[in-house]
């Protein structure tokens, strides 16, 4: 039973069998209303997703100030006057340390560790 058997799947052209009917025309207004409602729901979900993303950025990341930020604000002369100052610099974000407020464990072998 080592003979190869080839199985093929052919797609049937279903669009040729469908004929437009006059019954579908009044439904287009309802379909447009449903389509608009669906678009509004999708837009609302996008707005919520962006708000959640911005909230996460504010709570879990902190902005790192760089020398370029200081130069752009005018308090330093690292940037030449000929360079384009209109180009925005993307902020560098660093994750906040969630363990910074937890105390370190005692050293192994110390009296506090033994207690």
From TrEMBL:
<feature type="region of interest" description="Disordered">
    <location>
        <begin position="1"/>
        <end position="28"/>
    </location>
</feature>
<protein>
    <submittedName>
        <fullName>Uncharacterized protein</fullName>
    </submittedName>
</protein>
